[in-house]
Specification:
- The protein is α/β, with parallel strands linked by helices and 284 residues long.
- It has two domains: 6-180, Rossmann fold; 188-273, Orthogonal Bundle (N-(1-d-carboxylethyl)-l-norvaline Dehydrogenase, domain 2), CATH 1.10.1040.
- It has eleven helices and eight strands.
- It has helices spanning 13-23, 40-53, 62-67, 92-105, 121-125, 159-171, 187-203, 209-219, 226-233, 235-249, 258-265, and strands at residues 6-9, 29-32, 69-72, 83-86, 111-114, 134-139, 148-153, 175-180.
- Helix 1 (13-23) links the parallel strand 1 and strand 2 (29-32).
- It is globular and about 55 Å long.
- InterPro entries: 3-OHacyl-CoA_DH, 3-OHacyl-CoA_DH_CS, 3-OHacyl-CoA_DH_NAD-bd, 3HC_DH_C, 6-PGluconate_DH-like_C_sf, 6PGD_dom2, NAD(P)-bd_dom_sf.
Length: 284
């Protein structure tokens, strides 16, 4: 197929990586942000170079890949896109406002999707006039290398929208798993209770962070321990997902560890803040 244009709403870490993912497959992408970031071109080029060193992008093609990208702060620039992925802040109010704008200007888009990792697809679809063309496409970070994409059907998602997204994901060499709407989807519903339990172990003094992570790497063959992973994801995001699971299921087994709340309140959000369960600050 590939005769289509992809729109990415949100030029943060995930949005930029999604734009690179599609552009590296020769698919034109419009990436929108609510305000222009002066360093976007340099950041995008740096990301492409890093991916080339990992063997995920042909270094000789970086120039051509960049030509496939159009960066803008004018949301109407996505009006001609066929497939739009919302990848803004994981906040229902922010997402609803952006989705309303996208829905009003992209009247001919085949599919409008959200990359949410936890919010209700059916509820987000209710902020659009055509919920049949709306669904969830949950890419995992980093999307260039992670094969899995959870495709979540809302209550009103059409078969046509689903078929289109599955075809697109096949063309970019992803492994889609189609699931009905459920709190946390599959991966996060399994993953975050483990992370939460690791925080409880730490707070109870059973073991330190390095020991807990080492046990899971060496005993369960995980490539990264749960506390390392939490730092990478962001402790604020971990907390938000656990709170959503409690809210949506009413099940106390997802109750966030008090230590996790304490760290978030203190601004110890993980790698992006320079400190979380580990310190990432350079020693002077």
């Amino acid at each position: 197929m590939q005769n289509y244009i992809v729109g990415i709403a949100g030029a943060g870490n995930m949005g930029m990586q999604l734009a690179l993912l599609f552009a590296s497959r020769g698919i034109s992408a419009v990436i929108w942000n609510h305000k222009m970031q002066p360093g976007f071109a340099n950041d995008f080029n740096r990301l492409a170079i890093i991916q080339s060193r990992l063997g995920l992008v042909n270094k000789e093609q970086i120039g051509a890949i960049t030509e496939c990208i159009r960066y803008t702060n004018n949301i109407t620039s996505m009006a001609g896109c066929d497939f739009i992925i919302e990848a803004v802040k994981e906040d229902k109010q922010v997402k609803s406002a952006v989705l309303k704008q996208i829905d009003s200007i992209a009247t001919d888009a085949k599919v409008i999707a959200t990359n949410t990792s936890m919010l209700s697809i059916t509820e987000l679809a209710s902020f659009t006039e055509k919920p049949g063309r709306f669904l969830g496409v949950h890419f995992f970070n980093p999307p260039m290398s992670m094969k899995l994409v959870e495709v979540i059907k809302g209550e009103l998602t059409s078969d046509e929208a689903l078929a289109f997204v599955l075809q697109v994901l096949g063309e970019i060499n992803k492994h889609p798993v189609v699931i009905p709407e459920t709190p946390g989807f599959i991966v996060n519903r399994l993953l975050f209770p483990m992370i939460n339990e690791a925080v409880f172990l730490l707070s109870e003094g059973i073991a330190d962070a390095k020991t807990i992570d080492s046990c899971m790497r060496q005993g369960a063959n995980h490539p990264m321990g749960p506390l390392e992973l939490a730092d990478l994801i962001g402790l604020d995001i971990c907390l938000s997902i656990l709170e959503t699971l409690v809210e949506e299921t009413g099940d106390g087994k997802y109750r966030p560890a008090p230590l996790l709340k304490k760290y978030v309140r203190a601004g110890k959000l993980g790698k992006k803040a320079g400190i979380g369960f580990y310190s990432y600050r350079k020693r002077s």
